Amino acid sequence: MPISRAFVDDFFKVYSARDPDRLGAFIHDDVVWTVSGPVDVISYCGTHRGKAAVLDLILRLIPSVFSHTQHFQESLLLDGDRVAMLNRRSACRSGDGRIISYRVANFMRFEDGKVIENQSLLDSFDAVEQVLGHRLTAYDPPSSRTSDLVAL
User: Is residue 136 in a domain?
Assistant: First the structure.
């Protein structure tokens, strides 16, 4: 069944509000929800399977890191039961209230009008710098070394 833009907008409103009563209606029992990012810094990253695990992710795990999140949709592509989105996410860090803003791409698949698959790709370098509160330094090999090797 094709998914409408209005349906996707409704989902993200309920998701952002963390409304437990309405959120469950959008999540398939067999959902697989993956958030790609550095689990050492953003603890809720990883793959979560099943409705109970995903609701726990959205209602408990994410709020333990970010007390409030908002989604600002930059682009949206609908293709039948699939959705690709690029969003700017703004979140308030639970520990100190600092506002973190980063981009996230979501690739979602719906079945029977419910999310059955989500793949979220964070701009994790930007997000981690903001969460840590300082810029990350990239590896810079000593200039005294000469070699034909290239580090990738």
Answer: no
Q: How many CB atoms lie within 10 A of CB 107?
A: 15
- The 3-class secondary structure across the chain, one letter per residue, is CCCCHHHHHHHHHHHHHCCHHHHHHHEEEEEEEEEECCCCCCCCCEEEECHHHHHHHHHHHHHHHEEEEEEEEEEEEEECCEEEEEEEEEEEECCCCCEEEEEEEEEEEEECCEEEEEEEEECHHHHHHHHHCCCCCCCCCCCCCCCCCCCC
Digit-coded pLDDT (tens) for 96-140: 888 888 889 999 999 999 999 999 998 766 666 666 666 666 655
The whole model's pTM is what?
A: 0.80
Cα 118 to Cα 30, 121, 134, distances in angstroms = 12, 10, 30
CATH of the domain at 106: 3.10.450.50
CA gap 112, 3 in Å, rounded: 10
In a domain, 11, yes or no: yes
Q: Which structural domain, as residue segments, surrounds residue 83?
A: 5-130
